[in-house]
Amino acid sequence: MEFRDLKRQYSVLKQEIDKAVANALSSGAYIMGQPVKELEALLAEYVGSKHCISCGNGTDALTISLKTLGIGEGKAVFLPDFTFFATAEVVAMEGAHPVFVDVDEKTFNISPQDLETKIKETIADGKYTPAAIITVDLFGLPADYPAIEEIACKYAIPIIEDGAQGFGGEIEGKRSCSFGTIGTTSFFPAKPLGCYGDGGAIFTDNEEFAHLADSYRVHGKGSYKYDNVRIGLNSRLDTIQAAILQVKLNAFKEYELEAVNKVAGWYNDRLCKIVETPFIPDGYKSSWAQYTIKLPTQSDRDDLQAKLRSSGIPSMVYYPIPMHKQSAFSGLHTSEEEICPVATSLSQRVLSLPMHPYMTKEDVDFISSVIYGHIAD
Ligand SMILES: *Cc1c(COP(=O)(O)O)cnc(C)c1O
Questions:
Q1: pTM (2 decimals)?
Q2: Ligand 1 atom 5, closest CA
């Protein structure tokens, strides 16, 4: 059994994808060709943003967003403690100060209460100026934007939505990557919408930010490529990846998102009485980048993972180390233990199960029966 069966997806989409790749190869425009422009328009329309700027990967999408908002030295950027390292890494890379915010026990997403606490502490401390909030739509579920937007507004700081795992998620019909001042996503193969290499995108309604992001992704270009007006990156989306993404976006819109939600429903039905299953607030929709359960203790989690492994079922711990405990960030904080107790506890108790749109009811039955057997024992 595969954790995320990309080969199965390819076997279903093979004809269309092979044709799209062959067309890209014979076009001769291997970087930023016509399929890139077309894809950007399709993505902007789907997400509900005025502008989409594709780029090399989801990490660069965040870096470009920070540069676009002018965030660097002396600035504090607030982000969830429970996320993939890239969310925090980009902040430090730009010379800004990451402030780790605890997460909500039920949704795994940034806690609005702790966010406001950390903003107040940072202001009182006076060392760094609050400059942005990076929210993460962890495991496919949008963060609590109604509450976060209120705080962002109160303190007049922009939101960057890290939608690397969130593409396809919704709150009351408004789609992921359209929240915040700037939204980003990743097309890493295992993400909800993935290509066959690296890729990413930036979304915004703001004309000026779109213009800046477009410049930063191509060496800070000005009126043309060899007129360079700022220090930027080389972060473009390959034509081949854009051609593949056009086919995959169609499948995503037409049936994959629905299929993966059906799989989540099967899991919920079978598991909700024996383990803590994912919580989706009313009006929210997840794109299920992961299906993550919670066990009572670390040893319960580790025992279950061993049992699954011995039954041939892959599972993953996302994430075993919260940001404030990463050695790359040692020295940033004084009271190591207490800054994010929920994230710390989750890192010890979560387990992500195989999840993708091509899973069958039988797959879910088998996994659930192994979990049931193990826990009932
Ligand atoms: C995957 C991921 C990224 C980085 O995306 P890449 O395309 O791998 O650079 C950033 N943030 C989160 C939350 C992610 O899951």
A1: 0.97
A2: 58
Mutate to test the pocket of ligand 1, among 84, 241, 288 (most ligand atoms within 8 A of CB): 84
The CA distance from 369 to 354, in Å, is 14
Question: What gap in Å lies between CA 107 and CA 124, rounded to an integer?
Answer: 29
The residue nearest atom 14 of ligand 1, judged by CA position, is 164
pLDDT tens per residue across all 377 residues of the chain: 999 999 999 999 999 999 999 999 999 999 989 999 999 999 999 999 999 999 999 999 999 999 999 999 999 999 999 999 999 999 999 999 999 999 999 999 999 999 999 999 999 999 999 999 999 999 999 999 999 999 999 999 999 999 999 999 999 999 999 999 999 999 999 999 999 999 999 999 999 999 999 999 999 999 988 999 999 999 999 999 999 999 999 999 999 999 999 999 999 999 999 999 999 999 999 999 999 999 999 999 999 999 999 999 999 999 999 999 999 998 786 555 558 999 999 999 999 999 999 999 999 999 999 999 999 87
Structure-derived torsion over alpha carbons of residues 277, 283, 284, 287, reported in degrees to the nearest 10:
100
Ligand 1 close to Cβ of residue 87 (< 6 A): yes
The tally of CA atoms less than 13 A away on the side-chain side of residue 292 is 27
- How are beta strands 291-294 and 97-101 bridged, if at all? unpaired
The two beta strands, 97-101 and 51-55, are: unpaired
**Which ranges of 54-197 does DSSP label H, i.e. alpha helix?**
58-68, 86-93, 112-125, 145-154
Ligand 1 pocket, residue 162 CB under 6 Å: yes
- For ligand 1, say whether the CB of 83 is within 6 Å of any of its atoms: yes
Residue 194 structure tokens: 């993935």
Q: Which atom of ligand 1 is nearest to the CA of 187?
A: 7
